[in-house]
Structure formats: structure tokens, C-alpha cells
Model the fold of this input.
Amino acid sequence: MSRGCVVLVLSGLLILGSCSKQTGLTPGPGFRKALQEALIQAQPGAVIEIPEGKHDIDGPLTLTVDNVTLRGKGIDKSVLSFLNQTSGSAGLTVTANGFTVEDLAVEDTKGDGIKIKGGTGVTFRRFRAEWTGGAKETNGSYGIYPVECKDVLIEDSIVKGASDAGFYVGQSRNIVVRRNRAEMNVAGIEIENSVNADVYENVATNNAGGILVFNLPDLPMKGGKITRVYKNQVFANNHPNFAPKGNMVAQVSSGTGVIVLATSQIEVFQNTFKDNKSVNVNILSYQSTGNPIKDTAYDPYTEAIHVHDNTFSGGGDAPDGKVATLAKAVGAPLASILYDGVVNPKRMTAKKQLPDEARICIENNGDATFLNYDAAHEFKKPSRDISPHKCSLPALPAVTLPSGA
Done:
């Protein structure tokens, strides 16, 4: 045993602390108690290994120790099942830095799958969160849920059945979400009130909405911006919206590919959009939600959006919800790319457009159709003329994590 290694034995559980190694969790009765003891007693650097099998977890788990790894034998081999959960909401709640979970699944939590708050250095790798009973508004809100975090990596993971967003990163900085699959959620992937995010090489399908980049009022962190959404497959996101009434995502029309809402410096490029029945890309201000704005520090406008070099096919042929209402107001068919046309009047130049650095630029998207539906003037002058938006913006920088990942 190496120098400085700490060994703890708890109910047949062997923990090797500073050696960054742990073995001995035994499946069967008392598993949740043994696992929670391991999470409590873990030393920084510990690896808590979850053995193969479906393990019954009847209550919530918590972790407050920095630099702990929770590792299973594979997303279909090591499963923490919360189907019989009788207390708490989230499956696992983490308030620590340096948390990693990999090769593990969490199923049927009453609330969120794994929630981590206020952590720096967060990694989800080959992780699955799923509600196995299908799409229900009583499912947990989020599968993967880092909030108020920094340096977040989510890769090669799957979430199914979340009643809000499968992959949600909120009020965070320096984020990479890559090579994941979001399916049968209300929103597949959501980046909210966050700065510096790369969302790429993901598959979003059979959600109500594929990928959402939002900036919302009444939250401690404001001014979400600088997100790249690229090389994703966003297709057939036509699942009925099953969010509980009153949730923001309950307004997402089934059949939505990407929504960019009330944010700035967003680059959407080299994605494949296909068969999203309401709209493939929707760019809009917060005013278009119809919700009141009481937050005096909140900027509801959308600026500096660059949608370019994407591939579009199908979609927009059977709009739902608010997009269906829009189609009645302006006339069908709508378009692959919708823009509400709402701008900050204080930012308009003498040319009656936003400053060059703040424009909505749309280019090189093949034969994708476009519609500015003029929500600012109650749809009086909708326009399919894309020429005011044929412009470019500087490419946004790649997100670099301290780990180099």
C-alpha cells in the first residue's frame, strides 16, 4: 500500500481514500446505507465503485466531499434504481468540487437524477438518467443538473424522460456538452443563464424541443452569452410536451429543433436539422413568451446570433402550440428559421438596424426558408426576405477546460 493511504471499513465496505481506489460495495439489502456511508466517509481523491446490478435506493443520496469519483461498470450494468424512493427528491445531490460520475445509470428518481450545485470541475461521463415508465409530468425535472458551477464536462451520456430538460446546465461558466443523446424529454439539452458553452456532436431526437439556449429573468446569474451549438443531429423532436403547467418549457412547441431566447453571442453552425414539425430554428426575445418582466436588471432582447452552414430538410409542416398560433396569425407555411423581429429600440442605428456586432446573421444554410414574423408589431408586416440578415459575425472561441478535455 502506498504511503499516506487511508483504509476505512464500514459494514463490509472497504474504502481506500487517498490511494484513489475503493472496492467492496456488496449488492443486496442495505446497499443504500452502505453507499451513503461511503459518500460521507470518502476522502478527497476517493473512487467509489458501484458493482454490476440494479440496486434499490429508497431514499436520497448526498455528497459534500471534494474530488470524489462515483464509478460503475457501465450505463446498462450498474444501475441505481430509485423506483421505490420514499423520501427526498433528487437521486444524488452534490455540493462539492471535482465531482466525477462515470459508467453508471440512475433510474426513476422522484426529482432530478443528479444535481450538483456550486461545484468547480464537474464531469459526467458515460452516464445515463432515465425514467423507465415513459413520458410523464410527474417525472423528475432534470436528468443531469449542474447549477452555479464552473468547468463542466458532460460527454457520452444519455437522458430519457425528464419533464423539463434532460441535460440542463444553468447559471454556470465554461461548459462542454458533447457526444450525448437526449431522447423523450421535454427539452433535450438546455443551456440557461450561462457563459461560455460548447454544445456539439450530440443527438437530440424525440423530445418536444431539441436544444434550448435561454436567458431568463429572476435568477441570481444574469447575462447568459457566448454559446456555440454545432455539429449536432437535431431531428424529429416531435414528442408531445409533457411539462407541468407553469414551467417555462411548457411553452415549447412540440416539434422544435433549436430555440435561442433572450441571449447574445450565440453561434449555431454545421448542425443537421430534419423533420422538426413546428420549426427547426426559432430566434426570439423574451417579450414573445408573453410573460411579464419584473426583473429590472434583465435584458430580454436577443442579439449577436449567427446561424450558418447548417443542413436543413423537412419540418415546419405540422406546427404545434404557440407556433401553430403564429401560423394562423401570419399564414402558413412558416419557415425552417423563424425570427420574431423584436429589437431593442435604443440600440438601433441610423440605418434602422442593430449595430453590426449585434445583428442577427443567417447565411449559408442551403435552401432553408426564413421568416421574420414581426412580433414587435403584432405580425402586421411579416417578411420572408432574408437579405437584411445576410451577414457574418466573428467566430466564437472554443471552450477550454482546465483538464484539457
Notes: The two ends are 30 Å apart (CA to CA). The helical segments are 31-41, 321-330.
